[in-house]
Amino acid sequence: MTDPTLALPVGGAMDDIGTRRDFIHVIAAAAALGGVAAVAWPLIEQLGPSADTMALASIEVDYSKVAVGQQLVVLWRKQPVYIRHRTAAEIASAVRGDHEAVIDPAKDETRHKAGKAEWLVVIGVCTHLGCAPTFGEGDWQGWFCHCHGSMYDTSGRVRRGPAPKNLAIPDYAFLSDSRMKIG
């Protein structure tokens, strides 16, 4: 009978086993490195602002062609913004509403820039569930949300319905008589 300890590979066969083991170690290390990179990349990427947010952090809008009684809708940060050129009757109605009971009290003068009462800029998203209200409907002839019936006046203040807050006002500034910057 032969001793099994004597049956070890000799010469080239032993080198072949070492080479295979080295190859497996290299493949395992490469796979581990790839796994770490696959996990780390999205984590590092999400720390910075997204490209679309950076691109829409602020926008400039030419509002010179908006006629009295009309509104311009622009997209800012993936939300519609209504730039309303209010009529004298809309402004008067909004000022009268300053003294009426409203869900979220705010005077009309705080909802537009000083000296620019004819321009109202609001985010066109209902504060109830995020629908887009339309203008010229409802009891106050302001914005009306068809989804659940919230009504806003010509100043964007919520008057009736499930909406808890007025239409939000974005950060904006008039750059000239024809351009404004939102954001």
Question: Can you put this structure into words, describing what you see?
Answer:
The chain is an alpha+beta fold and 183 residues long. It has 2 domains: 4-45; 53-182, 3-layer Sandwich (Rieske Iron-sulfur Protein), CATH 2.102.10. Helices cover 26% and strands 22% of the residues. It contains 3 helices and 10 strands. It has helices at residues 12-45, 51-55, 88-96, and strands at residues 59-62, 71-76, 79-85, 119-123, 134-137, 142-144, 151-152, 158-160, 172-174, 179-182. The strands form 4 sheets. A 3-stranded antiparallel β-sheet has the order 1-10-9, with no helix packed on it. It has a 3-stranded antiparallel β-sheet with strand order 2-3-4, with no helix packed on it. A two-stranded antiparallel sheet has the order 5-6. β2 and β3 (79-85) form a beta hairpin. It is elongated. The N and C termini lie far apart (90 Å). The mean pLDDT is 83.
Layout of strands and helices, then pairs:
Elements: H1 12-45, H2 51-55, E1 59-62, E2 71-76, E3 79-85, H3 88-96, E4 119-123, E5 134-137, E6 142-144, E7 151-152, E8 158-160, E9 172-174, E10 179-182
Antiparallel strand pairs: 1-10, 2-3, 3-4, 5-6, 7-8, 9-10
Strand content: 15-25%
Helix fraction?
25-40%
Could you list the spans in which at least 5 consecutive residues all have pLDDT below 50? none
**Class of secondary structure makeup:** alpha+beta
Largest sheet: 3 strands, antiparallel
As for the number of domains, it is 2
> SSE order in H/E notation?
HHEEEHEEEEEEE
CATH class value of the largest domain: Mainly Beta
CATH topology of the largest domain: Rieske Iron-sulfur Protein
CATH architecture tag of the largest domain: 3-layer Sandwich
CATH superfamily of the largest domain: Rieske [2Fe-2S] iron-sulphur domain
Mean of residue pLDDT values: 83
For the termini, the CA-CA separation is 90 Å
- Total strands: the figure is 10
How would the global form be characterised?
Answer: elongated
Please compute the radius of gyration using only Cα atoms. Answer: 32 Å
